[in-house]
């Protein structure tokens, strides 16, 4: 009788986690100062700043979030090792530097990026990083983007959705998009609480945060970029969306359908491509905070396997659970390699170990 092969353990894939948050004590102080003064009406205040950074209850999730956001080395590396995470792509947590006056925001962006680059220099095989900048300071933003890539060797950029209740399709932000395209580095478009113009219905039931408001805000931002013709003006610009694409993969058929109808009716300026074509050409998607295999399959179908990357959403989600999810998903070895590390290495220029 022929012997039956005994399956061994599945092959281990290098894992690069692509939406992993950090903060600095300087930012913490600045956020609390803003939260307690002129921007108190912002929904970012109750959904993030005060709940995490203003003396959360000892032992609570918020207390742990604050501790782990501020720690870039000790506990973070221990958790990475425990979960089998090879690299974290670090980015500053919401709202970044986007709530401050322009000069203050520029200074905080420089300090935060220097802090990030120093952490990467100490652990070059374990960390990569996305630079923050201040969209409300156009000259400062473009200058810091250039410095972050050419001098600090960071891997791309993080924008925490709206700035002064404006979105990146606004023509005033064209120099930022031009800089990202010229530097050939993607912008990770990360959610934050809904802007003041849409915040009202999100203030009750905790809707303003990750349960609903964050995704609605970032998804709306992405659709504005698509329908505004931004990607006709900047065809090589790459945008990254977390959380399985902030619901855009689910909406893609209807976005195409309604785009065609409104373009025919003259209610929308026609663009060279349909929304779904821009999505495949100009966007990439990460799995951050979303361990749902049906959603993963939809994202692969809508975005293409070369545009999907694994992420945890550390420290807000479990590294062990996120690693188990991608290890157990019904993927071919080639698909798993693409999602776990190869796409991130290519898109973010992360050197292989």
TrEMBL record:
GO annotation, biological process: secondary metabolic process
Keywords, alphabetical: Lyase
Boundaries of every Amidohydrolase-related domain copy: 75-350
Gene3D superfamilies listed in its UniProt record: Metal-dependent hydrolases
Gene Ontology CC terms, in alphabetical order: cytosol
Annotated InterPro entries: ACMSD (IPR032465), Amidohydro-rel (IPR006680), Metal_Hydrolase (IPR032466)
Keyword Lipoprotein: no
Molecular function GO labels: carboxy-lyase activity; hydrolase activity
Protein's UniProt name: Amidohydrolase
Organism this protein belongs to: Brevundimonas goettingensis
Organism placement in taxonomy: Bacteria, Pseudomonadati, Pseudomonadota, Alphaproteobacteria, Caulobacterales
